[in-house]
Amino acid sequence: MPLAAYAARDDNCRGRRHPEPPPGDRTQHQRDRDRIIHCGAFRRLEYKTQVFVNHEGDMFRTRLTHTLEVAQICRSLARSLGLNEALAEAISLAHDLGHTPFGHAGQDALNACMTPHGGFEHNVQSLRTVDVLEQRYPGFPGINLTFETREGILKHCTRDIAAKLGDVGERFLNGGQPTLEAQLTNLADEIAYNSHDLDDGLRAGMLSFELLCEESASFRDHYDAVRRDFGSLPGRVGQHEIIRRIIKAQIADLRGTSAARLAAAGVGSLQDVRSATGPLIAFSDAMRADNDQLKALLNRRVYQHYRVRRMTSRARRVVTDLFGAFLNDPLLLPPDTLERVEQREAQRGLRGRARAVADYVAGMTDRYALAQHAALFGSVPNP
User: Which domains are present in the chain?
Assistant: First the structure.
């Protein structure tokens, strides 16, 4: 399918931080996608928490499986809207590279540790990962992605941080929108985590069909439709069919609403997209209300469930202890990490040391963080 006039393409690509020869048999954004898949931070996503700590069960989502689900949804939507499928996929694959071990609990703990030193935010850390931390090429730091992919990774940030990020921070200071592919990734991410957290919550026994029908009108509608079409289904099959329909409905709504918004706005180029007064990729008001209701339900019934709270309490202690130990005594660090910490400290003092320690802790998998904590402090008792 040919790309729409408002899609990101090689001929309107803003290039890379470090100039390189053209990729030859690939587009610029296909090259980005391939570099992301081959980087170490991408592989480590397999052992990073989504909601449930990795060793709690083999069937729960990890940060990697979440990422792959986002990429699959985003590719399909990009193709149907005439957008750059490779760029949408690249942004999807990279959007969580900067996440800490133990999911949002780890991020919150690391941000608290870093508050005196500039804070920590996983979108900014994802950008830092591809720009600086990955070391794979002799000619430049990072993996030297295109502006469009880097821009899409940076979903949000404060104005203070944006002012330090150069070109990719400009839209947060001067207004304007990112590519449609970046906008699409943001909402594909929402579709993926709402649906799979619902699935994992049911699998973990924190949710039930009865509770969901009582608290979510949209879930009840899909549940009733499945019962009408198939009658009584085995629990797991029924669960998959309901969630499949939820995903399908969200994708159809996002596709139709976005196509209508693009037509109404008269968008004819990427520059038109960038100068729009608001996002052009969006859910309908009704679907937005349904999703917000589902997110509130998941927060109340899954994320705040005592079993998840116990896991996240333990996770915060692990991250906080590790950061404090390494910041106070960098000689506890492996030699290559110690060298980076000393370099950053020589450049920026304690703030530089803290940032390098945060880079190290953020890059850990769940099980590596637990092993490091056990080596330094012994095992962490459950709350």
Answer: 10-205+296-307 (1.10.3210.10)
Q: What pTM was computed for the model?
A: 0.94
Q: Give the separation between CA 200 and CA 264, rounded to whole angstroms.
A: 38
Q: What is the DSSP string of 254-298?
A: HHHHHHHHHHHHT--SHHHHHT-SS-SS---HHHHHHHHHHHHHH
Nearest 10 degrees: Cα torsion 227, 230, 232, 235: -90
**Helix, coil or strand: residue 200:** helix
**Distance of CA 237 to CAs 221, 227, 244, 260, Å?**
17, 12, 10, 35
The pLDDT value recorded for residue 103 is 87
- Nearest 5°: the CA angle 286, 287, 291 is 120
CB 83 within 8 A of CB 4: yes
The set of residues, in sequence order, having a beta carbon less than 8 Å from that of 161 and lying 6+ positions away, is: 121, 124, 169
pLDDT tens-digit series, residues 82-126: 999 999 999 999 999 999 999 889 999 999 999 999 999 999 999
Helices 85-94 and 180-203: angle between axes, nearest 10 degrees: 50
Low-confidence ranges of the chain (pLDDT < 70): 1, 52-59, 380-383
pLDDT at residue 94 in the model: 98
Instruction: With beta carbons less than 8 A apart as the criterion, state whether 111 and 316 touch.
Output: no
At residue 382, the pLDDT reads 59
